[in-house]
Design a protein that fits this description.
By secondary structure, this protein is an alpha/beta fold. Helix content is 39%, strand content 24%. It is built from 8 helices and 9 strands. It has a 9-stranded mixed beta sheet with strand order 3-2-1-4-7-9-8-6-5. A hairpin with a 4-residue loop joins strand 2 and strand 3. Helix 1 (4-26) crosses helix 3 (41-57) and helix 3 (41-57) crosses helix 4 (76-88). The longest helix is centred in the first third of the chain and has 23 residues, at 4-26.
Length: 231
C-alpha cells in the first residue's frame, strides 16, 4: 500500500511523461485530436491516472460524478480511459457520447445522473480544424447544445479538457503549469440559453508548446522505463 506522499510522486511522474507525449503530438500542428496518444496503450493508462488526479486537485472526487460524456469523437478513448481507471480505484462511472447530428446520447441512460463532459482539446482552434459543434470562443464562452443533457434528465457538474488554453481566460495566471479550474459561460446555440459551468483544463497548450522535447529514441526509451517502473 503506497503512502499518500508516494502516490503524489507517482502522479507527478505520470503527469510529466504524459505532458511529453502530448507535446510531441502537437509539435508543428495548429490543432490535433491527439489520437496517437489517446489510442496508445501506454498513453491511455497515463490519461486515466492524470485526468482523475487533475480533477481531484481541482476539488472534485470520483463520487461527484455518475457518468463521463465525450463531447467529440476524439474524446471517446479519453472517457474510456477515465472509467477504467475509476473502476480500478473502486469507482462506478458509466460513459456516453454526445450525438449532435441526431441530438441524443449514445450509451447507458443518464437520467437523473451527474455528468462530467470531456473533450480532447477545447479551444477556438477546435472549431476551425474539426467543424465541431463544441468550441470555446469570445474569450471564455462555450457554444454547446447542453439541452441534450437536460433533455435526458441529467445535470452537468463540470466540463474538462485534456488540453486547453489559458489565453481563453484573461484572469488566469500564466505561471501555473498544473491543472486549472475556471468558470465558462455555456451558450446553447439553438435557444441562446446561458449557464455558468466549471471548466477543468488538465494541460495548457502554451505550456506544452514552450517545452517541446526532442523526439529521440533516447527520450522515448527513458519514458517507457519510467512507465514500467510505475506499473
Amino acid at each position: 500500500m503506497k503512502s499518500k506522499h508516494g502516490s503524489e510522486e507517482l502522479s507527478d511522474a505520470s503527469c510529466a511523461i504524459l505532458a511529453k507525449k502530448l507535446a510531441r503530438s502537437i509539435q508543428g500542428k495548429a490543432f490535433s485530436e491527439l489520437a496517437d496518444v489517446t489510442f496508445d496503450h501506454r498513453g491511455a493508462v497515463l490519461i486515466g491516472k492524470v485526468f482523475i488526479k487533475s480533477l481531484q486537485r481541482c476539488g472534485y472526487d470520483l463520487s461527484d460524478f455518475d457518468a463521463v460524456g465525450a463531447l467529440t469523437s476524439a474524446a471517446v478513448p479519453i472517457v474510456d480511459a477515465i472509467i477504467h481507471t475509476a473502476a480500478a480505484q473502486g469507482g462506478e462511472l458509466n460513459a456516453f457520447v454526445m450525438d449532435f447530428v441526431y441530438p441524443s446520447i449514445k450509451g447507458p441512460s443518464i437520467a437523473g445522473k451527474r455528468v462530467l463532459l470531456v473533450d480532447s482539446w477545447l479551444s477556438e482552434k477546435s472549431y476551425i480544424q474539426t467543424s465541431s459543434l463544441v468550441t470555446l470562443r469570445d474569450g471564455n464562452e462555450l457554444g454547446l447544445d447542453f439541452g441534450i443533457i437536460t433533455k435526458e434528465g441529467a445535470t452537468v457538474v463540470a466540463i474538462a479538457s485534456l488540453i486547453g488554453s489559458q489565453q481563453q481566460f484573461v484572469h488566469a495566471p500564466k505561471s501555473d503549469p498544473g491543472p486549472r479550474s475556471f468558470e465558462i459561460e455555456a451558450v446553447n446555440p439553438a435557444t441562446q440559453e446561458h449557464a455558468t459551468i466549471p471548466f477543468v483544463m488538465v494541460f495548457d497548450e502554451g505550456t506544452l508548446r514552450s517545452q517541446l522535447p526532442a523526439d529521440s529514441d533516447t527520450t522515448v526509451g527513458s519514458e517507457r522505463g519510467m512507465e514500467d517502473a510505475e506499473a
